[in-house]
Amino acid sequence: MMNTISDTAARVDSAFLFITGISVALLVLVTALMLFFVFRYSRKRHPEPVEVEGNLTLEIVWTAIPSIIVLAMFYVGFTGFQFMRTPPGDAMTVKAVARMWSWVFEYENGAKSDVLKVPIGRPVKLAITSEDVLHGLFIPAFRVKEDAVPGMTTKLWFTANETGSYDLFCTEYCGQGHSAMITKTEVMKQEDFDKWYASYKAEGEESKGLQILTEKGCIGCHSTDGSKKIGPTLKGIWGRKEAVVTNGTEREITVDEEYLKKSLLEPNADIVKGYPAIMPPQKGALTEQEIGALVDYLKKLK
Ligand SMILES: [Cu+2]
């Protein structure tokens, strides 16, 4: 059964099946021979041992066959490795940036997304890096995985052959929010992808705040639809009464501009009750204008 979800998955699965098949065949052969010898040459059936002098033909055969098998496994593994390490020249490059605890994907036209969107049937090369610690980018369905290393660009590539949504997550323990560092690879029809790709430029100031939330990775931990993630949702945050813990004491605040700004720069000063104090401070990561745009956006996020 051929795995057709992606070219890389087909290569990896066939290599895996090939090696597993040989291993199973050898296991069966060795076990069967062992049982046969145990019965056939037991003391009861074969009381007089015989001295065997050697058998050149047998020795050549049992040296040559395993050598051929091992070289065949090497061949399958090595050509598969070469295939996976060599992106085709016409591959679409997408920059994948990891940070605690989310992914951002940047396209050649400047489009950014927290979900990896790719067109079907087109080779996609990911140029992967990290803004803070070691992360690992893994798309299990495509059988591709690569470390995200700060100060370094690593790569992987695949061609997805079936539309759908596939898990993409971090495989390097990167702190408390590690398990939430999960997103999707969306394989789209070419026309749907083109529509999304072209729409990026058309969006105006209106979506600036959402763009920052996506680019800075905020929505890895804070949803905009009311659902609970590792941090509180941002939906309806403006004017919300919130029980917070300040220096170990609980108090109630109303979310206003001052609170939002403070919570961006010193996120752990007033922690919303029931949530862990793990958000990295955004001092230096956000400009004054960006903070302004975020606050404007959150005011309207009902
Ligand atoms: Cu990570």
How would you portray this structure in words?
The protein has helices at 7-40, 56-85, 190-202, 208-215, 257-265, 288-300; strands at residues 92-99, 102-106, 112-113, 116-119, 123-130, 135-139, 144-148, 154-159, 164-170, 182-188, 241-246, 249-254, 270-272. It has three domains: 7-85, Helix Hairpins; 92-202, Immunoglobulin-like; 205-300, Cytochrome Bc1 Complex, Chain D, domain 2 (Orthogonal Bundle). The protein has six helices and 13 strands. α1 runs antiparallel to α2 (56-85) and α4 packs across α6 (288-300). The model has no long low-confidence stretch (mean pLDDT 89). The strands form three sheets. A five-stranded mixed sheet has the order 3-2-1-5-8, with helices on one face. The chain has 302 residues and is an alpha+beta fold. Helices cover 35% and strands 24% of the residues. It starts with 6 loop residues before the first helix and ends with a helix. The protein is elongated. The structure holds copper (II) ion (CU). Copper (II) ion binds at residues 98, 101, 135, 170, 172, 174, 178, 181.
Number of helices: 6
Order of helices and strands: HHEEEEEEEEEEHHEEHEH
CATH class of the largest domain: Mainly Beta
Radius of gyration: 28 Å
- Measure the end-to-end span: 49 Å
Q: Identify the CATH homologous superfamily of the largest domain.
A: Cupredoxins -  blue copper proteins
**Would you give the CATH topology of the largest domain?**
Immunoglobulin-like
Neighbour order of strands in the largest sheet:
3-2-1-5-8
Bound molecules: copper (II) ion
Question: Averaging pLDDT over every residue, what do you get?
Answer: 89
Number of strands: 13
